[in-house]
Structure prediction request, 240 residues.
Amino acid sequence: MCENKGILIGVGVGPGDPELVTLKAVRMIGEADRIILPQSKAKEARAYKIALGAVPALTDKCLLGLDFPMTRDKEKRDRQIRANYEAIRSYLAAGEKLAFLTIGDPCIYSTFCYLKTCAEEEGYATALVNGIPSFVAAAARWNIPLCLDDEEVHLLNGKSHLARELALPGSKIVMKAGRCLGDLADAIEKMPGTRVYAVKDCGLPSEEIFDDVCEVPEDYMVTVIVKERPGQEEINHWDE
Prediction:
């Protein structure tokens, strides 16, 4: 471990509703010396806006915004991650407690974990503070269980083998589904007896819900739950 006790903490702030920010996340934000956001204009980051609703004192914190490329080019991505780590390295060396705010939960497809690895390679302490994932919030928004009895739950990224993965038993969750809506619609069309529960911008004022994947907008923050149609059972959900 480094002589200086700098620590890098990934803090999940949930999907959008500030009321879903955990008490632990609120405490960690309050204790942090510096807040890191995954966008160069820190105050425009969605994670910042969510956290601000739960922690008004966030306006008084030192902020650092970092850009992360949305690319499948691993070499380009790794270069930017290394550059971003260099941008926070001096703060860790000075012994600061850094809180990286991430939408949802930092354990699930989170950019933070790349920085976490860089910090750990140099002997710095790291930690993860769980947040409510978008797919759990989406299920609650629809007022449905994700799983009962022996039902399975499958988390899909929508990048490959989508038709095969949607054929798995139980509930299928496609995160950030806006990038694969065409393939998703094609696969679901070939699967009679399924039902779609989609939520865009879950927990935000711009939130919308859809039960037809063909009506879902091509937006980055879209979560789609695909379940076997429950026969005659009535599904209740909150009305707009």
